[in-house]
Write a structure and sequence with these properties.
heterodimer, A: alpha+beta, CBS-domain, 6 helices, about 35% helix, elongated, B: about 60 residues, two-stranded antiparallel ribbon, 1 helix, globular, binds zinc ion
Chain lengths: ~140, ~60
Amino acid sequence: MPTEGTKASRPRAGTVARTGVPTCQVDDNLGAVSQRVREAGWNACVVVNRERIVMGLLRAEQLGGDPTHSIREAMRPGPSTFRPHVAITEMAEYMGAHKLENSPVTTSDGRLVGLLVREDAERAARELESTTTQPSSK
Amino acid sequence: MTPAASACTSSTLACRDCGRMIDLCAFCERVECAVASCHVCLRLALGETLAHPHAHGG
Ligand SMILES: [Zn+2]
Ligand SMILES: [Zn+2]
């Protein structure tokens, strides 16, 4: 049920996305990147170019691939990315329905904003729901 | 409801909303998705999404 609540405090994909997500470049080595990502406590890494334009994504499946491969060989090229302004409730709903663990959030020119993690999105959506379901019979 | 003629096609996935045949779900990029969506419907639902159809290295 979409509620027209206070727009100012409404969390969006861009505000919930984790900006500290590990990144790497296409010429990096998968083994080294996987180790760095794991040590940082992540199971995903966004592949970017020097301008931080998203080139690809490494999820757990790709990170567990042949460590001698380059990122170019291992990554999923051209992942679906989402804009920062998308409402978090929508993203949480979609991520749950599609069982998607994470999704990159980018600006309109493809620049990385952060990685939206499903549990963060669902938590933010629940919090938003609990604050907007106060009875407001006019 | 109307089963599309399953003649010689590599894609067997249909968008849940519009029925268009797609190779992958535009949201989760999986071939096997019970709630698959095409790019058009996804864009309508979530505003804009940006997929890079060709991620050339240079
Ligand atoms: Zn569709
Ligand atoms: Zn899907």
